[in-house]
Amino acid sequence: MTTTKKLIRVKKILLGALALCLLLSTLAACSGGGLSGTYRSQGLISQTFTFSGGNRITMSAFGINASGTYKINGNRMIVTYSIFGMDTSWSCQFERRGRSIFIDGTEFIKQ
Fold it and tell me: Which end of the chain is more exposed for a tag (fewer CB within 10 A), N or C?
């Protein structure tokens, strides 16, 4: 396998891993207003969600960052982002309690 093919394969694997983490994500409903700041998981795999500028989001997992926008609609959040030139959008359930958000049962604490 050539170096280029290996690099493409690694990127696809990492993209798949990030997508899996994000698809498993649910973010907490915010009663009136957007989210702000950085939330970090405390588990084995460090993941972060940084919310800024009203509807901007940056997600990080496995050393890969993806930036985009989010919209909260009731207890759902719709995230649209681009990574490795591919546009992606998904809808997640979401909940917020105090300084934490919970993504599929995983707690993310505001830093």
Answer: N
